[in-house]
Structures are given as structure tokens and as C-alpha cells.
UniProtKB/TrEMBL annotation:
Entries under InterPro entries matching the protein: Amidase (IPR000120), Amidase_dom (IPR023631), AS_sf (IPR036928)
SUPFAM superfamilies in the cross-refs: Amidase signature (AS) enzymes
Name of protein: Glutamyl-tRNA(Gln) amidotransferase subunit A, mitochondrial isoform X2
One Gene Ontology MF term: glutaminyl-tRNA synthase (glutamine-hydrolyzing) activity
Species whose genome carries this gene: Populus euphratica
Domain spans labelled Amidase: 103-381
Region of interest called Disordered, as start-end residue ranges on this chain: 514-540
Length: 540
């Protein structure tokens, strides 16, 4: 198990005696100090990952972004049309008093409760809090105080993010009744901007895949499929127009996979951009929070609100980004991989971007293994008590965390450190090979997901079209398989990816399409059990 068969029998006996006398008491003492509670909400590691490639400051960095001014926005006649408006459009309706925040809360809570029985994307409705926050937002506006584009806008949080007074279940039956009396940093940021929390959305159990203690979250574009990835609730709820935006998290694909499956625009920002205080921790050197939205423009607005230095998150940093709305994309050189969606390449080229074929070159051949070691060992440190008390026997999917974390128990500390040394080598090679300002490529290629999370660079997932589902009903169906791509940038250059995505979406409409959850087609009902189970990516 330890790859240490170079020890002869006498040395093994000596090691056993020394370990019993020296190691075991230290193990017990450390566990008592910092590991009696699960989830990593307290006692973070002093080992800090920093993804920065350079000490240079971004040109023209601004404290806050300058949002485009919308004029002539009129309130739609139907609640359905209101539900699929952008954040800036909804914000203009509120600012001009064509609609109130309370009215928006009513619309979105109704949609959450209408579609959740099918999609299984909501864990907790926060009605009382939502109406309280909405009323406060309306009262502020009546006094002439407007907090910005998120003023009075409803949203959802992945249920690994703590909100005082409400359960934070982590999607797990073992923790489904826990309440923490702290405020997550990202929740405080959104609250200070006037945003209104309407629901705690599904996290896969302990932030792994889309299975949780209440079921399994479905894809609004094809309800025979599941949403895949642990930010299942934020992706499905945003796609279905149940919330204007939501906050999810990624350690290894939990933003990119569900965003791609559910056909929404989502940003996995540079590591350290968004503070994680009050958020269940998988891996402190990998975890990131990011927005699920209707568009790249909306992602930019939300990122501007939630970015910044969290004083209680040692990995959090203030990253002085350029204003994505002011980036001159004609000055950029953007690469495209072999698996890039060529429509995106051609649109950006037509807008004056220099597009070139591109490939990331690196010699490290154990990228997926490095990710696996890093994530599993750090996760087990946060759920040591959970495993030791055999709560893993009650976990919702035994081939997921229970299997991985039992294996992680016997990863030697020296080999965890060797994995981090290999990770550093990988980062250096990727930095040398990243010769463009950004590149376009598949957002769910597993090797690239692992690499991007280990290096810490940002990617925005962008819908680029649809195709027919496999084996559609003979009577017809409106269900579709979504097509997406990823726009990747260097660490601390999220504004480049956002600007390119906004440029693409300014002349395309894929991101504005609505899933067929009200009109699936003749005899096109929700199957149970499902007939299509997508391949589940294990962290290999």
C-alpha cells in the first residue's frame, strides 16, 4: 500500500514500535485540536496556494467595473419573459420602479416551487428571509438609495454556503439538519449589494456529483439526463429561469460540467478571487466559488460584487482586474484548440481578434493523479471525524467519496508533498506554454479540467448551440443536448475571458434560449427511473 517494500522485516518492526510511541499520540493530539468538526469551516491550513505567475499589476485596473447603461427597458407582459431577463435588465426595471423586488421574489419563488418537483434542484426555500430583504431593498429605493445592479435581484446559493438561521446541509443526509450561526463571506457581499436570497440550491452530497440526500438533480434541457457535477442546483435552477443567477463552487469540474450540461454561462474564476469563509471545504488549494448566469455580462456583474480580499480566507486576494467592459479585444491574440467550437473562433475573428491555432504543451503526465491526490487528502483532513465514526457508510453513493477517502487514508505524507512538487512543475510548464492572451477549447475535457484547477486559471463556459438528443421519442421532442465551449485566460486575467465571451454573445443568441420544461412534446414525460444516465466522472 505504501510502496515501501525496501524496508526489511526488522526495520518494519522498528518503524511500528516508533510509530506507536511517537506518531500515534501526535495524530490524536492534532485531531483533538482541529479535526473534531467536519467540513473545514474552521482551522484552515497554513500552507497557502498562490496561482500568480507575475508580480506585475494589470493595466488600468479599477476598483469597480463600469456597467453599460441600458435605456428604454420596458417591463414584459408575462412573468415568463421577466424570469429570463438579464441582471442588468431586471436591475433597470427595479431602478425605474417598473417592478418591485417583492414582486420579483414572488415570481421566482413561484417558479422554484413549480419546477423543483421535476428538477430536484432546491434544498431549502428562504421565503421569510427573501421577503424581508426584498422589502428592505424597496424601502431603500423609495428613499432614493440605489445600491447598484444587484439591488433587489433574487438569487440562489449552493447549499455548502452558510446562511445563519437556515440549514446548510452540504447535500448529505448525515448533515441535513445542521445550522451554523455564521455568515459566509460571499453571502455578506451579495447582501451588501442589495441582492435577495430566495433559495439554498442543491449541492451533490459533500460537493460530489449530482446525487444528494433528496434525490438527483435533472437537466432542464433534457429531463432524462441528470445535471452532473456538484453545483447541480445552481446550474439547473439558472437554466430553468428559477433564479436570475446563482453561486456555485468548483474543486474539479463542479462549475464547468453542470454549466455545460444545462446550457448556462458560468465562470470559474482565478483561484483566490472570491473568499470562502463560511463555505464547506473540500480542498483548500483547489476550491473556488463562481457565478452561474444567463450571460457573460451577468457573470461580470456578479463577479464584480463578490471578488475581493476575505480577511478570514488566507488564500483570498484582491486581484486588480481590468474592466471587462473596457477591454479592446482587437489587441488580443487568442488561441484555439483542436476541440474548440469554430463558431466562436469565427465570430471573434470577425470582430478583429487575432485567432491562431494553439496547444498547451507540458511534460507532466500525471495531471489527473496529482489532482486526485491533492483533492482527496485535503478533503479527508476536513472529514476525518466523518470517516473515523463510520458515517461514510451512510453516504448516498458508495462509489464516490467513501471509496476515494478510504484510499486517501493510506497516501503517505511524503507522496502528497511530491504531488505538490509535480504540481509546481506543471504550473511552470503551462506558464511557459501559455503564449496567447486566452484560448478557446472544450470546457469539459477531463485532463483540462484537472489542469485548470491545479494551475488556478479562469475559464468561462459559453453556450454555443444545440443538437438533437440520442434516441428521441418517435412522436417528437423539444429536448436538446446543449453544446458549449470554454474561454480560458491566464491567472488574474478573468477580464480577458469575460470580454471575449461578451463579444461572442453580443451577436449570438444561444445563451438566450429557454429549456422546454413546460412543453416537452407529445408523450414526452419525466421518466422514472431515468432511461439515460450520463457517464459520471470519477476523480481519477
Amino acid at each position: 500500500m505504501l510502496d515501501a517494500n525496501f524496508f526489511d522485516d526488522s526495520k518494519v518492526l522498528d518503524i511500528a514500535r516508533e510509530a506507536k510511541e511517537f506518531n500515534l499520540p501526535i495524530f490524536a493530539a492534532n485531531r483533538e485540536l482541529v479535526a473534531s468538526e467536519n467540513g473545514g469551516l474552521h482551522n484552515p491550513s497554513c500552507l497557502i496556494f498562490n496561482p500568480e505567475w507575475t508580480d506585475e499589476q494589470v493595466e488600468n485596473a479599477s476598483n469597480r467595473f463600469s456597467y453599460p447603461t441600458l435605456s428604454g427597458i420596458q417591463k414584459p407582459k408575462t412573468e415568463e419573459d421577466i424570469a429570463f431577463m438579464s441582471i442588468l435588465e431586471l436591475g433597470e426595471l427595479i431602478r425605474t420602479k417598473q417592478i418591485t423586488s417583492v414582486e420579483l421574489v414572488q415570481i421566482f419563488l413561484q417558479r422554484l416551487k413549480r419546477y423543483n418537483p421535476v428538477l430536484e434542484s432546491v434544498i431549502t426555500y428562504t421565503d421569510e428571509l427573501a421577503y424581508k430583504q426584498a422589502k428592505e431593498a424597496d424601502e431603500l429605493l423609495a428613499k432614493g438609495v440605489y445600491l447598484g445592479p444587484l439591488h433587489g435581484i433574487p438569487y440562489g446559493l449552493k447549499d455548502i454556503i452558510v446562511v445563519p438561521g437556515y440549514k446548510t446541509t452540504w447535500g448529505s443526509g448525515s448533515f441535513k439538519d445542521q445550522v451554523h450561526n455564521i455568515e459566509a463571506w460571499v453571502y455578506k457581499r451579495l447582501k451588501s449589494a442589495g441582492a435577495v436570497l430566495v433559495a439554498k440550491l442543491v449541492s451533490g452530497s459533500l460537493a460530489y456529483d449530482d446525487i444528494w440526500f433528496g434525490g438527483r438533480t435533472r437537466n432542464p434541457w433534457n429531463i432524462e439526463e441528470f445535471s452532473t457535477g456538484s453545483s447541480a442546483g445552481p446550474a439547473a435552477s439558472t437554466s430553468a429561469g428559477m433564479v436570475p443567477f446563482a453561486i456555485g463552487s468548483e474543486t474539479a469540474g463542479s462549475i464547468t460540467y453542470p454549466a455545460a450540461r444545462c446550457g448556462v454561462t458560468a465562470l470559474r474564476p482565478t483561484f483566490g478571487t472570491v473568499g470562502r469563509t463560511g463555505v464547506m471545504s473540500i480542498a483548500e488549494s483547489l476550491d473556488k466559488l463562481g457565478p452561474f448566469c444567463r450571460s457573460a455580462e451577468d457573470c461580470t456583474v456578479v463577479l464584480d460584487t463578490i471578488r475581493g480580499k476575505d480577511p478570514d480566507d488566507l488564500s483570498s486576494r484582491y486581484i486588480p482586474l481590468d474592466d471587462p467592459f473596457s477591454v479592446d479585444i482587437k489587441r488580443l491574440t487568442v488561441g484555439y484548440m483542436d476541440d474548440a467550437e469554430m463558431e466562436v473562433v469565427n465570430v471573434l475573428k470577425s470582430k478583429g481578434v487575432k485567432m491562431v491555432p494553439f496547444k498547451l504543451n507540458y511534460t507532466v503526465d500525471s495531471v489527473q493523479g496529482i489532482l486526485n491526490f491533492t483533492m482527496d487528502v485535503e478533503m479527508l483532513a476536513h472529514f476525518d471525524e466523518w470517516q473515523r465514526t463510520r458515517q461514510d457508510d451512510l453516504y448516498e453513493a458508495q462509489d464516490q467519496w467513501p471509496t476515494e477517502l478510504r484510499r486517501a487514508r493510506v497516501i503517505p505524507a511524503v507522496d502528497y508533498v511530491q504531488a505538490q512538487r509535480a504540481r509546481r512543475k506543471l504550473i511552470q510548464e503551462v506558464k511557459k506554454s501559455f503564449t496567447v492572451d486566452a484560448f478557446i477549447g472544450n470546457a469539459t475535457d477531463w485532463e483540462r479540467v484537472c489542469l485548470g484547477n491545479l494551475v488556478g486559471f479562469p475559464v468561462i463556459v459559453v453556450p454555443t448551440g444545440f443538437k438533437n438528443i440520442s434516441s428521441p421519442p418517435s412522436e417528437g421532442t423539444r429536448r436538446r443536448t446543449t453544446i458549449t465551449t470554454g474561454i480560458y485566460a491566464r491567472p488574474n486575467h478573468d477580464h480577458i475571458a469575460l470580454a471575449l465571451a461578451m463579444a461572442y454573445q453580443s451577436v449570438t443568441y444561444h445563451h438566450k434560449q429557454r429549456p422546454p420544461i413546460d412543453n416537452l412534446g407529445p408523450n414526452d414525460i419525466r421518466p422514472y427511473p431515468p432511461t439515460t444516465i450520463p457517464h459520471r466522472r470519477l476523480h481519477l
